[in-house]
Amino acid sequence: RHLSKCVVTGDFEVAAKMMLPARSWSYVSSSSNSGLSMAANLDSWSAVRFRPRVLRDVQTVSTVSSILGHRCPFPFYISPMGILGRAHANAEVELVRGFRRSGIHGVISTVSTKTTEEIASSLTEALERHDDSRDVSAAPQLHFQLYTSPDREAAIKLIHRVKAAGFRSLWVTVDTPVLGKRTIDRRQLAEEALAMGSDEQARAAGLGIVTHVRQNQVSASLAWTDLEWIKKEWGGPLVVKGIQCAEDAKLAMDYGCQGILLSNHGGRQLHSAPDALSTLLEIRAYCPEVLGNLEVFVDGGLRDGADVLKALCLGAKGVGVGRPFFYALAAYGTRGVERCIEILAEELATAMRLVGITSLDQVHPDLVNARRLANE
Ligand code: FNR
To answer: Is-annotated flag, keyword NAD (predicted)?
Structure first.
């Protein structure tokens, strides 16, 4: 499939499925248990409808936004995804090169294929290469997603490395004290083991991923109070990734975090987890002060620039997009990443014009059917 034929983000998934090895495909497409959490993510945004205003002169439109004080050209960023070596041989380096032209932000995973330093310097190198097509007013930025190792010394060392490499903020993932049940992944591993040996080995391999993956990378004993030393060692803006109810949103605020990400990890962790939209509506109903005090981000199942606008109308500061970028990177490398950004950006600008706004400070809950969704 030629890249020019990719006109919606879903086209990258089709392209990637055709060329990815089974193990990589199962890794990215996997969700937990029956797949309900992931399916609910996709459905949730589809249930939001706009209430457009007309006759408002939408000739000129700006999608400019910011993340934690850093300007960005769009209110969406690339979600952290581990082991991008399974998408592309050049992994995160290839991904980050795709940021140069647009100036988008990306959050880099603790479990990246390339080192923290390699990824940071690949952005600097990409920016230094002379290129007239780059929008020089927009500088791409990198943020870092932290899985907190049970070995505190190791965690502190990593935080210091991230700081030295110039990452702008730290996103602490809190929805993964243990790995969720990754169904497709387990079947794939079992199949590989079966091809080599006995049924018993296959079952062990299928379960093996739970203990094998991230055993040394994630602490199941992580608690709210740990945010204190993390904050101290980091010394910069902190975002809690994986908030799934209003009470915890409030707690994150009380602990002095600068941002929260409402997320169920792309439907890969808890079975029957709430989608980010439900959590956002809960916060609107029970602790709306959070929306005024913190930058609230959402992710999971957002696939269209119009979905991004829906989230912003409901109070989100920005939106993370995960799998579409994995697929785009896998199928087309840097050019795929650039194209995926272009698609979302164009959809966003069009949706803004069609609902009757010209800049993101005009977003408002009255532009969507929020009351009906929240049963207000
Ligand atoms: C993830 N996600 C994730 N999150 C995190 O905090 N650390 C990580 O290393 C990863 N790794 C990862 C790998 C892959 C292949 C996927 C698909 C997801 C979760 C990710 O940051 C984000 O929350 C979801 O991907 C958002 O949902 P969508 O856009 O993929 O539907």
So the answer is: no
Tokens of 2: 């030629």
Ligand 1 pocket test: which of 265, 275, 279, 303 has the largest number of ligand atoms within 8 Å of its C-beta?
A: 265
The pLDDT assigned to 132 comes to 61
Say if residue 135's pLDDT is above 70: no
Q: Which atom of ligand 1 is nearest to the CA of 86?
A: 15
Catalytic, 265? Answer yes
Per-residue tokens: 39: 């399916």
List the one residue out of 96, 101, 184, 179 whose CA is nearest residue 144. 96
Q: Which member of 88, 105, 265, 364 is catalytic?
A: 265
Residue 371 has pLDDT above 90, yes or no: no
Question: How far apart are alpha carbons 124 and 253 in whole angstroms?
Answer: 33
Per-residue pLDDT at 271 exceeds 80:
yes
Q: Which amino acid is at 230?
A: I
Give dist(CA 78, CA 319) in Å, integer.
9
Asked whether the predicted pLDDT for residue 372 surpasses 60, the reply is yes
Neighbours of 220 (CB within 10 A): 8
pLDDT at 374: 76
- Residue pair 77/241 in contact (Cβ under 8 Å)? The answer is no
Q: Which of 32, 77, 79 to mutate to test the pocket of ligand 1 (most atoms within 8 A of CB)?
A: 79
Distance from C-alpha of 304 to C-alpha of 302, rounded to nearest angstrom:
6
Work out the average pLDDT over 75-83: 98
Average confidence score pLDDT of the chain? 93
Please report where in the chains the tokens 């904050």 appear, as a residue.
Answer: 231
CB 296 within 8 A of CB 315: yes
Ligand 1 pocket: which residues have CB below 6 Å? Answer: 27-28, 41, 79-82, 109, 111, 145, 173, 241, 263, 265-266, 268, 299-301, 320-323, 326
Give the Cα separation of 254 and 150 in Å (integer).
Answer: 24
Q: Is the pTM of this model over 0.80?
A: yes
ipTM: 1.00
User: Rounded distance, CA 160 to CA 235, Å?
Assistant: 10
